[in-house]
Structures are given as C-alpha cells and as structure tokens.
Amino acid sequence: MTTGLVDNGAMHVVSVAAECEPWAKAGGLGDVVDALARGLGRTGALDGPVDVFLPAYRSVALPANSLVEEVRVDVPGPYGPSTPAHPDGVGTVIIRSVVTRGYRLRLVDFPPAFDRDAIYGHPDDAWRFGLLGRAALETLRAEARPVDLLHVHDWHASTALVLRDRFYPADPIVGRGHLAAILTIHNLAYHGWVERTELATLGLVVGDPVVGRGAAGIDLLRAGIERADLVNTVSPTFAAEALTAELGFGLDQTLRWKAAQPDLAGQPRFLGILNGIDPAVWDPSTDGDLAAPYSAADRAGKASCRADLLDRVGFDPGDDGPVLGMIGRLDPQKGFDLLAEAAARLLAAGARLVVQGSGDPALAAPFRALAKRRPDRIVLNERFDRVMARRIYAGCDLLLMPSRFEPCGQGQMIALRYGTPPIVHRTGGLADTVIDEHLHPGTGTGFVFEHPTAEGLAGACEQAFETRADAAAWSGLVERGMAVDNDWASGPTAAYLDADRRAIALAHAPGAGQSRRRAPRP
Ligand code: GLC
User: How many helices (H) and strands (E) does the chain have?
Assistant: First the structure.
C-alpha cells in the first residue's frame, strides 16, 4: 500500500478547486480554499504544504519575482489532437507551481480552456473543469509521490473523482484504496449537469460505469457525493437542511444515503463543518483600506470609517440614521430582491442603504432605479470591489444577509468582527453564527428573522433600529459581536484534519471502493 501517512505519519494533502483567493475568486469558495490550505499547512500534521490545483485563469497574477516551477504534463482526453498513443486525444498543459501563503499553488495552464475573462459561465465549463480534474490526476501520477488525501470542492473539482474512477481506478497513486477523497459542498444549487450528448467533452460515453446505462447524462456533484469517502458542507445547520426536499436541490436523497452510511467509527459520511475567517485578514485594527483603525478595546475609529464611507458614496455624514450595508453576488440565493422590496419601508424609517454586488443585472435593476431617485439614501456599487467591501463592513451600522439559503456565509462573520451587527435570515451557517438580540436581549450578537420575505427582513431591521436607539444596549451588542471567535484555527481546521483522517481510514479499509451499496436514483 502506498501512502505517505503510513510511511512517515504525516499526510500529503492535495486540493482541487475552481477558486482560491487571492488568485481567483467569485465568492466565498475562494476564501475557504485558501484559508483551509493555509490552516492545514500550519498544523504540523502534513508532510509539506498542501498542493492546491487551480486553473490559470487570465486574471491570475502572481507577484513579481515569484519562483515558479514549470512542468509539462500530457493530459489524455478531448483536449487536443489524437495520436497513436492517445487515439481519444491528448493536450499538453503546463503546471506552474509556486509556494506561497503557506501552500503550493499549482496553476493548470491551458490557454484554450482558461485564458478567458470570467471564471464561470462559459458554455464549455464541463470541458474546462474536466480538464482541471484530469490534469490534477495526471500531474500526481507523473510525480509518483504518494498522496493521502484529495480534497475536491463543489462540482468543478468533482470531475477529478469521476475521471479517477473511470480512467485510473487501480492506479497506485490516485486509484481507489490509495487516495482518500473528501468532497466539500459550498454550493448545492450548482450541480454541473452534463447532457448525454455532451459526455464526450469529459471523455465519457453513455454506458461507462461512472455514467450508467441509459443515463440522460451525468450530474457531476451527485457523482462526487457518491464517489468521495466523506462529504461535508460548510455548516451544521445547512448539513441538516440539505437532507430535506426544500433545501436539498434534488440531491437530498443522495445525501441522506451518504449520511446513513457510517464510517469505521460509526460516524456519518456526510457532515457539516462550519467555516471560519482569518482574523489576520479581517482585522479592523490593521485593515489598511479603512479610514481609521479600531478594535474591540477602542472603537473610536469606527465613527471615522462611517463618515468616510458616507462621504465616498455621497451621503450626508452628519445624519445619524441607520446605515445598512449589503454585499454579495447578485444571485437569487442572496435575497437582494427582498431588500429591494423592503427598501421603501426602510427608507421611511430613516435608514440609508449601501449595496454592492456583481452578477445578474436583473437583480441590480431595482437598486439602480432607487439610487437614481434617491441618491442621498441609496447607493449601488455594481461590481466586485474588495476595498469598498472592507469600507462597507466597517462603515455601516448594520450588515444585511437575507439569503434564502446559505451553506455558511462569510459576510456575517466579518461584520461581527468589524463591530457591525448582522441582520440575517435564520438559515444554514447564518443560523449557526448569529444570536438574535431580540429573542435574547443582552446576549445577542445580531438580528435573526425566520422567513425570507421583505416583511421578515424589514421587521428585523426595525428591531435593530430600536436597539440602536438605546446606546448601552447597542454598545453591548457590538462588543459581544466583536468578541465572537470564528478563527479557522480555533475549530474548523482541526475538524477538517479529523475528517481527513477519517476519510483516509475509510479509503484504506478492506473492501473499500469495491461493491459499495449503490446510491439511489430519484
Ligand atoms: C458558497 C456558499 C456560502 C459559503 C461559501 C464558502 O459561496 O453559498 O454560504 O460561505 O460557499 O463555503
């Protein structure tokens, strides 16, 4: 049996993902991939830095003078012309590796797939991310260094598990029984569905055992759930919600099947691990983008940040009315439409809104219209803007997260740390990280509403305005929020390390990967 773990007790962990901050990020996925790789690297449980495979998107910029090691790897499959050795085609990718931030970033450079403007949203995304998964596997095989754990994120990297089981099932490095696999689900709403007519873009055909006879296509996320040793999502509450028809996005049955299969210690194979944030990255006392530093011990600088934000967006800094911030992807998940609907009521209560988001222009339209009518009370920054986001977290009085569902959410944790109480819908990770001050006066950290409606949101905002009118109550609320410990190092990293070890034990258990009970098909 080849495993670094058995040889020297330290794990060799490889992660594959479509995003990794600060190199490529569209949402929270990127933050987690980066923070987890850094966190695991610091535990001393690994045999070296985590390898993080990421597409070399056009936008990825490495710092000048980076020491980059380049190797060429031939990747069989529909990535280039056929040759006698590879009748189905072969493409040559360059793997550009650089040790940075405490992990080894491994950029998969293949311009036809990744030298494009946006990370997602291309008609050939399955082909692009199939290449990511297969290039990672081929690189590991070429290096022939034992890997203990492959950590794949969302559907994009689930390709690695499908292609492993199709093309390399008995490989001494990446095959089953050698390489344990964890799948982390950040977004259950995106499955990577590939029609049967498109299977060739992954190098698959109908009738392949990984696809199934008579299949209409392949759901890559479902396949990842079936093939990973352990599956997790990013909060305990969302892990429970994902098992229901309402929030399971059609995969609840597959997840219930996974959860019902115990591992060697009798623990379920589907679990929730709450994300953290990096307290060094999110620290108002050192954040260089803020007008003034502040901390829990001395919050004076927050007022300057507020004045600075209001000034920048053209609001009257002298108006003491509540300023509500909302930041996120313009995606139906996030509930921007609820805020648009509640806006008139909030304005009538004296509030002002600072909204930032990029994505679906239809979701931005109502804010654009409102901002045009009331530029003194509503502003929309319709782009992904890291610096402005920090100023909003710091400068607002309250941060809104009315998400319909939220596997974890990061904004609420940042807001807590920045002394800006969050107002959230009781769902997923939001429910796990915010304590409702209205229900628990004197012990809350924010405001939590039950139903994802404009009513629910506006009601919680009004409760927040009431608390804000009581200076002592408000100060206690802010103080408690700033004291919440969501550090990756305090819990999540150890929880992943434990999950990694469980997955490794499962992968090496006798009979692992052979005739497992099949997942049910809806
Ligand atoms: C996705 C989820 C979000 C989570 C993030 C990181 O973006 O929607 O809730 O925080 O992934 O895990």
Answer: 17, 17
